[in-house]
Design brief:
- The protein is an alpha/beta fold.
- It has one domain.
- Helix content is 30%, strand content 11%.
- It is built from 16 helices and 14 strands.
- A seven-stranded mixed beta sheet has the order 5-4-2-1-12-13-14.
- Strand 4, helix 4 and strand 5 form a beta-alpha-beta unit.
- Helix 1 packs parallel to helix 3 and helix 6 crosses helix 16.
- The N terminus is likely disordered.
Length: 551
């Protein structure tokens, strides 16, 4: 539990940290290998009978993906490990259809999941062939990590079918049956990310999320996600990019605004919790938080006494969800949610509020989730002995959440595995913002510019999110398009298609190494202004309503 009077977050006792030069040696399958991690392809049912993309189909990029695989093969010299880090396939709500329609806690059986997988494999046969060709080239390997949308890969029969479809010599194609992936030396760890923190997509028994009903084995489903899933299922046909926002929580709030919904009724608590606990920490600048700055100690007694007002006041006045939260508060629907928050959750809300407030007060131009010039939220009340600039380290919750996840992953590692140096997660659809100020002011020092370390003032381990293999739009980019075209939320969301979004796909790359992984790098497979596809250190492109062509 987070303690209210917590002081500096230094290297925790659980972390086997040592300076980078002295970390235990490890090799990738006997020789250095390039590692690339991508995620969230969401391959679904493709086109309809008329040859048009189904509105719910997110993977429309098979041609550029095949080119990427060829480039990655060349970059790695035929010795690359490609990790598909979750949600490769859309098997849970395929075309909005669920397997167990009468029970929100039940998902598919293995035969039902296999039938869905066969449809997806047939529709995306060219992409499957491209992946198989990559895995068969040189000494390349291909690994699939299950996510919440393709958790059915944890059924052994479903995993075998995928491995057969992606067939490669030996064991060079594999589904991660334990729900995560590790490099051969244990130094690189990847999981999809839906099990991290307070996310509503968490499964209770991961990586064995199964239950027996009436003699059949079903996947379970995260019940807390039901209200969120219902919203996207209902509104995606009308607003095709509502689930292409980075972060996805922003898609929910923009979609509700576009739909003109002014009262959520009984769904309000679940949706508000979803919005509040997304917490996209990676949008903030981190260059002012070195040295001895400490986290504040929040007065949790005073915080808890605010009741539902704490939840509503955690949203700035220009947040699209705030009127809905206020309506729910007036109707008395938020009392149970406020009362059920534990101390860790209260500290998390207060930490994120403080980070958001500071970002707006110093007009951080790098923000992706809200306008830097908007009204700041108020801080939670502090205990008297933690006031002032010395207590402005607001990343405590982030460090503890990801540090705790690393601790669990390290505890589950084979005895011979070295300490995890790189932890890659995805799921949120929000890529880590490169810390360019740190990059420009490093003065010869090694600094983390892609991702962060949950260990204060350390270079290892590094936690990094490379975003989805999707075209996405941030709320700030959405606002710019609105201003440019003079459109309302409903008009712009109704007009946008995935093809209008920036032609960039993020991934995490760890270069070949002998002993210790170098710092991970976020790279992009992007369409250059010349019309050629290339690997690049930044996207450099923006969404544009006039950019969609026939595909």
């Amino acid at each position: 539990m987070v303690v209210a009077a917590c002081a500096a977050v230094a290297a925790p006792l659980w972390w086997p940290f040592a300076p980078a030069a002295t970390l235990a040696a490890g090799h990738q399958n006997g020789s250095p290998r390039l590692v690339a991690v991508i995620a969230d392809l969401h391959m679904g049912l493709g086109r309809d009978e008329a040859g048009e993309w189904r509105v719910e189909e997110d993977f429309r990029w098979g041609d550029e993906f095949a080119l990427f695989l060829e480039a990655l093969d060349a970059e790695g010299g035929g010795a690359a490990d490609l990790v598909l880090n979750g949600d490769t396939f859309e098997l849970d709500r395929l075309a909005g259809e669920r397997c167990a329609v009468d029970d929100p806690a039940l998902g598919c059986t293995a035969p039902e999941a296999l039938a869905r997988l066969e449809r997806v494999l047939a529709v995306h046969a060219d992409t499957v062939d491209a992946l198989a060709a990559f895995a068969s080239s040189g000494a390349n390997r291909l690994f699939l990590v299950p996510g919440e949308h393709d958790a059915a890969l944890l059924f052994p029969a479903v995993a075998r079918r995928v491995e057969r479809a992606l067939g490669a010599p030996g064991a060079r194609t594999a589904v991660a049956a334990n729900g995560s992936w590790r490099s051969d030396d244990g130094r690189i760890y990847a999981e999809h990310g839906h099990q991290i923190g307070w996310r509503v997509d968490r499964f209770e028994a991961w990586p064995a999320p199964f239950v027996e009903r009436a003699g059949q084995r079903h996947l379970t489903r995260p019940v807390q996600a039901a209200a969120v899933d219902a919203f996207f299922d209902e509104h995606e046909a009308r607003y095709p990019v509502v689930d292409n926002f980075a972060d996805e929580g922003a898609g929910l709030t923009h979609g509700l605004s576009a739909a003109g919904i002014d009262d959520l009724g009984d769904a309000a608590p679940a949706l508000l919790r979803y919005v509040l606990f997304r917490m996209p920490w990676q949008q903030f600048r981190l260059d002012l938080d070195a040295g001895d700055v400490r986290p504040p100690a929040w007065d949790l007694e005073a915080v808890r006494a605010q009741g539902p007002a704490l939840l509503v006041d955690s949203l700035p006045n220009d947040h699209r969800f705030k009127p809905l939260a206020q309506r729910a508060q007036e109707a008395g629907l938020l009392t149970a949610l406020a009362n059920d928050l534990d101390d860790d959750e209260l500290v998390a809300l207060c930490d994120y509020r403080a980070a958001s407030r500071r970002a707006r007060r110093r007009f951080e131009r790098v923000l992706t989730q809200f306008d830097p010039q908007g009204p700041p939220v108020r801080e939670c009340p502090r205990l008297p002995d933690s006031r002032g600039g010395l207590f402005d380290y607001f990343w405590r919750t982030r460090d503890l959440v990801y540090g705790g996840r690393l601790e669990a992953a390290q505890d589950g590692a084979p005895a011979a595995a070295g300490p995890i140096a790189v932890f890659v997660h995805n799921h949120t659809h929000l890529i880590d913002w490169r810390q360019r100020v740190l990059e420009l002011t490093r003065l010869g020092r090694t600094v983390i510019v892609d991702g962060f370390s949950p260990v204060r003032n350390a270079l290892s381990p590094v936690v990094v999110n490379g975003g989805p293999w999707q075209r996405t739009i941030t709320p700030v980019q959405f606002g710019r398009l609105q201003a440019e075209h003079g459109l309302s939320d409903a008009e712009l969301l109704g007009a946008l298609r995935p093809e209008h979004l920036a032609p960039c796909y993020g991934f995490v790359q760890i270069d070949p190494y002998d002993d210790t992984p170098a710092l991970p790098a976020i790279r992009y497979w992007r369409l250059a202004e010349s019309g050629d596809w290339e690997m690049a250190p930044r996207c450099g492109r923006q969404p544009a309503l006039a950019s969609a062509g026939a595909r």
